[in-house]
Amino acid sequence: MNTATYILALCLSMSSMGTVAQAGSGKGQEPHSKAFALPDHEPIGKPGDVASITRTVEISIKETASGYMLFEPDAIHIEKGSVVRFAISNLGALDHEFFLGSFDEIAEHKQWMREHPDMQHDDPNAVSIASGQSDELVWQFSAMTNLEFVCLLPGHREAGMWGVIMVHDHLAPKSKG
Ligand SMILES: [Cu+2]
Protein backbone atom coordinates (compact mmCIF):
# COMPACT_ATOMS: atom_id res chain seq x y z
CA MET A 1 0.00 0.00 0.00
CA ASN A 2 1.50 3.36 -0.95
CA THR A 3 1.17 6.38 1.28
CA ALA A 4 -1.74 7.95 -0.58
CA THR A 5 -3.72 4.73 -0.54
CA TYR A 6 -2.92 4.26 3.14
CA ILE A 7 -4.16 7.75 4.02
CA LEU A 8 -7.30 7.19 1.98
CA ALA A 9 -7.94 3.88 3.75
CA LEU A 10 -7.33 5.56 7.11
CA CYS A 11 -9.77 8.34 6.27
CA LEU A 12 -12.39 5.87 5.17
CA SER A 13 -12.04 3.80 8.31
CA MET A 14 -12.20 6.92 10.49
CA SER A 15 -15.30 8.20 8.78
CA SER A 16 -17.01 4.83 9.14
CA MET A 17 -16.02 4.79 12.83
CA GLY A 18 -17.63 8.20 13.14
CA THR A 19 -20.83 6.86 11.64
CA VAL A 20 -20.90 3.91 13.99
CA ALA A 21 -20.31 6.10 17.02
CA GLN A 22 -23.11 8.39 15.93
CA ALA A 23 -25.51 5.54 15.38
CA GLY A 24 -24.61 4.06 18.75
CA SER A 25 -24.81 7.06 21.02
CA GLY A 26 -26.29 9.79 18.88
CA LYS A 27 -29.10 11.58 20.64
CA GLY A 28 -29.97 8.32 22.34
CA GLN A 29 -27.93 6.70 25.04
CA GLU A 30 -25.67 9.52 26.20
CA PRO A 31 -28.02 12.47 26.40
CA HIS A 32 -26.05 14.50 28.88
CA SER A 33 -22.85 14.22 26.90
CA LYS A 34 -20.86 15.15 30.01
CA ALA A 35 -20.62 18.60 28.50
CA PHE A 36 -19.03 20.06 31.61
CA ALA A 37 -16.02 17.77 31.13
CA LEU A 38 -15.20 19.07 27.67
CA PRO A 39 -12.68 21.91 27.32
CA ASP A 40 -14.98 24.00 25.13
CA HIS A 41 -17.71 23.73 27.76
CA GLU A 42 -15.44 24.65 30.66
CA PRO A 43 -17.65 27.58 31.81
CA ILE A 44 -20.23 25.39 33.49
CA GLY A 45 -17.62 24.23 36.04
CA LYS A 46 -17.44 20.79 37.60
CA PRO A 47 -18.70 18.72 40.54
CA GLY A 48 -17.38 20.29 43.72
CA ASP A 49 -15.33 18.72 46.47
CA VAL A 50 -17.43 18.56 49.66
CA ALA A 51 -14.35 19.41 51.74
CA SER A 52 -13.89 22.69 49.83
CA ILE A 53 -17.40 24.14 50.11
CA THR A 54 -17.22 27.93 50.41
CA ARG A 55 -20.93 28.75 50.46
CA THR A 56 -24.33 27.16 50.92
CA VAL A 57 -27.28 28.37 48.86
CA GLU A 58 -30.69 27.23 50.04
CA ILE A 59 -33.32 26.77 47.38
CA SER A 60 -36.97 25.90 47.90
CA ILE A 61 -39.22 24.31 45.31
CA LYS A 62 -42.83 25.46 45.58
CA GLU A 63 -46.08 24.86 43.76
CA THR A 64 -48.76 27.53 43.72
CA ALA A 65 -52.54 27.10 43.82
CA SER A 66 -52.74 28.53 40.32
CA GLY A 67 -50.48 25.83 38.88
CA TYR A 68 -47.09 27.52 38.87
CA MET A 69 -43.97 25.66 39.95
CA LEU A 70 -41.12 27.75 41.26
CA PHE A 71 -37.58 27.75 42.52
CA GLU A 72 -36.99 30.28 45.29
CA PRO A 73 -34.73 32.14 44.81
CA ASP A 74 -34.64 32.00 41.03
CA ALA A 75 -31.66 34.32 40.49
CA ILE A 76 -28.36 33.72 42.24
CA HIS A 77 -25.04 35.56 42.07
CA ILE A 78 -22.02 33.34 42.60
CA GLU A 79 -18.39 34.27 42.89
CA LYS A 80 -16.13 32.68 40.31
CA GLY A 81 -14.04 29.87 41.81
CA SER A 82 -16.41 29.20 44.68
CA VAL A 83 -17.60 25.71 45.62
CA VAL A 84 -21.30 25.94 46.35
CA ARG A 85 -23.53 23.52 48.17
CA PHE A 86 -27.08 23.87 46.85
CA ALA A 87 -29.40 22.67 49.61
CA ILE A 88 -32.69 22.10 47.85
CA SER A 89 -35.99 21.47 49.64
CA ASN A 90 -38.97 20.23 47.68
CA LEU A 91 -41.97 21.76 49.46
CA GLY A 92 -44.34 20.74 46.67
CA ALA A 93 -46.74 17.84 46.32
CA LEU A 94 -44.96 16.53 43.20
CA ASP A 95 -41.49 15.13 42.62
CA HIS A 96 -39.05 17.55 41.00
CA GLU A 97 -35.45 17.89 39.95
CA PHE A 98 -32.68 20.43 39.96
CA PHE A 99 -30.58 20.35 36.80
CA LEU A 100 -27.70 22.77 36.37
CA GLY A 101 -26.33 23.55 32.92
CA SER A 102 -25.62 26.03 30.18
CA PHE A 103 -28.62 27.42 28.34
CA ASP A 104 -27.60 25.47 25.22
CA GLU A 105 -27.15 22.21 27.06
CA ILE A 106 -30.52 22.56 28.75
CA ALA A 107 -32.30 23.33 25.49
CA GLU A 108 -30.78 20.20 23.95
CA HIS A 109 -31.52 18.13 26.99
CA LYS A 110 -35.10 19.27 27.17
CA GLN A 111 -35.70 18.01 23.65
CA TRP A 112 -34.18 14.67 24.65
CA MET A 113 -36.41 14.48 27.73
CA ARG A 114 -39.46 15.07 25.57
CA GLU A 115 -38.57 11.97 23.59
CA HIS A 116 -37.67 9.91 26.70
CA PRO A 117 -40.02 11.15 29.44
CA ASP A 118 -39.31 8.23 31.78
CA MET A 119 -35.57 8.65 32.06
CA GLN A 120 -33.94 9.00 35.45
CA HIS A 121 -31.01 11.35 35.94
CA ASP A 122 -27.81 10.26 37.53
CA ASP A 123 -25.67 13.11 36.26
CA PRO A 124 -23.39 14.90 38.69
CA ASN A 125 -25.01 18.19 37.61
CA ALA A 126 -28.54 17.04 38.46
CA VAL A 127 -30.44 15.78 41.46
CA SER A 128 -33.98 14.41 41.76
CA ILE A 129 -35.94 15.39 44.86
CA ALA A 130 -39.13 13.62 45.86
CA SER A 131 -42.05 15.55 47.31
CA GLY A 132 -41.31 16.67 50.86
CA GLN A 133 -37.64 15.69 50.64
CA SER A 134 -34.39 17.64 50.57
CA ASP A 135 -31.16 16.91 48.78
CA GLU A 136 -28.02 18.70 47.79
CA LEU A 137 -25.66 19.27 44.92
CA VAL A 138 -22.10 20.55 45.26
CA TRP A 139 -20.66 22.44 42.32
CA GLN A 140 -17.48 24.36 41.57
CA PHE A 141 -17.90 27.41 39.35
CA SER A 142 -14.82 27.96 37.22
CA ALA A 143 -15.56 30.86 34.91
CA MET A 144 -17.60 34.02 34.54
CA THR A 145 -20.76 32.97 32.76
CA ASN A 146 -24.51 32.73 33.07
CA LEU A 147 -26.02 29.33 33.73
CA GLU A 148 -29.52 28.04 34.13
CA PHE A 149 -31.05 25.68 36.64
CA VAL A 150 -34.28 23.94 35.76
CA CYS A 151 -36.60 21.06 36.42
CA LEU A 152 -36.70 19.08 33.20
CA LEU A 153 -39.70 16.95 34.01
CA PRO A 154 -42.24 17.43 31.23
CA GLY A 155 -44.07 20.75 31.54
CA HIS A 156 -42.30 21.89 34.69
CA ARG A 157 -39.93 24.41 33.12
CA GLU A 158 -42.91 25.88 31.27
CA ALA A 159 -44.75 26.11 34.60
CA GLY A 160 -41.97 28.28 35.97
CA MET A 161 -39.26 25.90 37.19
CA TRP A 162 -36.19 27.72 36.00
CA GLY A 163 -33.69 30.12 37.42
CA VAL A 164 -30.46 31.86 36.50
CA ILE A 165 -27.01 31.70 38.04
CA MET A 166 -24.66 34.56 37.30
CA VAL A 167 -21.01 33.77 37.95
CA HIS A 168 -18.76 36.80 38.27
CA ASP A 169 -15.33 37.55 39.72
CA HIS A 170 -16.58 40.61 41.60
CA LEU A 171 -19.63 40.35 43.81
CA ALA A 172 -21.21 43.05 45.90
CA PRO A 173 -21.27 42.01 49.57
CA LYS A 174 -25.07 41.75 49.50
CA SER A 175 -24.84 39.17 46.70
CA LYS A 176 -22.46 36.84 48.51
CA GLY A 177 -25.18 35.27 50.61
CU1 LIG B 1 -40.46 19.89 38.56
TrEMBL record:
- List the SUPFAM superfamilies: Cupredoxins (SSF49503)
Question: What CDD domains does the database record attribute to this sequence?
Answer: Cupredoxin_like_2
Does Metal-binding appear among the keywords?
yes
Where are the residues of the annotated region Disordered?
Answer: 21-41
Source superkingdom: Bacteria
Residues in domain Blue (type 1) copper? Answer: 64-167
Organism for this UniProt entry: Sulfitobacter pacificus
Q: Which residues form the signal peptide?
A: 1-23
Would the keyword Metal-binding be found if you checked this record's keyword annotation?
Answer: yes
Cite the record's Basic and acidic residues compositional bias ranges. Answer: 29-41
Protein name in UniProt: Copper oxidase
Source lineage: Bacteria, Pseudomonadati, Pseudomonadota, Alphaproteobacteria, Rhodobacterales
Give the Gene3D superfamilies listed for this entry: Cupredoxins - blue copper proteins
Keywords assigned: Copper, Metal-binding, Signal
| InterPro entries reported in the protein's UniProt record | BlueCu_1 (IPR000923), Cu-binding_ET (IPR050845), Cupredoxin (IPR008972)
